Amino acid sequence: MDAFVQDLIHYSPQILAGLKNTLLLMAIMSVTGIAGGIGLFYLSLAQNRFLRRGTERFISFFIGTPLLVHLFLMYYGLPPLGIRLSAFAVAVIGFTINVSAYNARYLMTAYNGLDKTQIEAARAQGFRFFQIFRLIILPQALRLSVPSLTNQVIQNLKDTSVAFLIQYPDFFAQMQEIASTNFQFFKTYVAAGLVYLALVSVIVAAARRLERKVALPGLETLGRA
Amino acid sequence: MTFGNILIILAKGAGYTILVTLAGIGAGLAVGLLIAVLQTTKVKAVQLLLAAYTFVFRSIPLLVLLFIVFFGLPGMGIRIPPFLSMVLCLGLVSGAYLAEIFRGAMAAVSRDEITAAEAMGMKRVQIFFYIIWPQMFRMAVPGMVNEFTSVLKYTPFAYTVGIPEIMKEAMSLAALTLRGLEIYLAVGIIYYLIYKAFVLLFETLEKRFRIPGLAGE
Predict the structure, then answer these.
(1) What is the DSSP code string of A104-159?
(2) What is the ipTM of this complex?
(3) Domain that holds residue A77
(4) Is A202 in CB contact (< 8 Å) with chain B?
(5) Which end of chain B, N or C, is surrounded by fewer C-beta atoms within 10 Å?
(6) Which of B67, B149, B188 sits opposite A69 (nearest CB)?
(7) Are B90 and B24 in contact (CB under 8 A)?
(8) What's CA B23's distance to the chain center, in Å?
(9) Does any domain span residue B200?
(10) pLDDT, tens digit (0-9, with 9 covering 90-100), for B139-148
């Protein structure tokens, strides 16, 4: 058998452990990212002008700066202050903020496309703002941004590979370690690429199903980002 | 060392960051346009090949691609210098995304205008440069700006192949002074300023070339 394939089989427990870490991180940040995105979206619609502006600045800052900087800031910047977070904790916090900012933007774009007379009507009926948000704005905005939100999940999977730069033992970190022992850099990294390709294909298939499921006749979804 | 000193030291790396970004954008535009133009041909094999290209390069993480190109290819006897590796990877990936943006913009150009141009006896190349390009370019601007800022945000990966951009400077500075918090905060601020400058630049360009009545917002 090819020595490279034998290597992969030999290291398979390590590879699978890495894959588990990658998928775990992706799953966590996809969920927390949606929750955080909804939270930021709510704050950016707030009545209070300062709160609204502050949220907009916050979103803009995290969209405008590289993810790696946020991770390094927490991973290398906090320990001198006595705050020592594990690579996993840093990855979860950093990714959550980053993904939340993007998701909030998608929801905002969807909101801008909504018919605002609905909101006036709701207000005239005596709905409070939170009720309007929960019952009228959010269900439509979420539905309209499904393609963007699922795209973000794919982005999340790809971004987990960045976590290896802060020593999180994800899938790519394991492949990197294997490559540095067998010196088959090309084959090992291409194999890693193929695994990402396969995982993305699975997510894309699931996303298409979800899109069909939540589609309402007559309510157009926004173009994908 | 004050925070201001840190900012000044790191700003030296910003030159490389901007250079990598601009080169990456240039490569991405070249790849994206090429794909968008090739997609208009009706040959099935070409269509399939291009679809495979965009799928592959939108699915593989940039970091993995960079490692394949920079650390993997030398084993196959192909040695690409760090800067070129980074630009190549940025071009391949952002090209795949830009191709999709261009395709959408091209589809939005009215069929009737193309038919009219054909009736006037214009050649395919003429139709592309005089009818399709001026319109699709303007319609693609918002998507393009988005993609360009993504390129900027991918540039910190360049430190992994040894390009002395902001991130690399920050890491060596942090190792020396152990003041990671201030240093990476400064890095964040510099990136944000570059990001804002890029967005502002593209917005001004967009306004300059905007045609009233033509959808573009």
Answers:
(1) HHHHHHHHHTS-THHHHHHHHTT--HHHHIIIIIHHHHHHHTHHHHHHHHHHHHHH
(2) 0.87
(3) 3-214
(4) no
(5) C
(6) B188
(7) yes
(8) 8
(9) yes
(10) 888 889 889 9
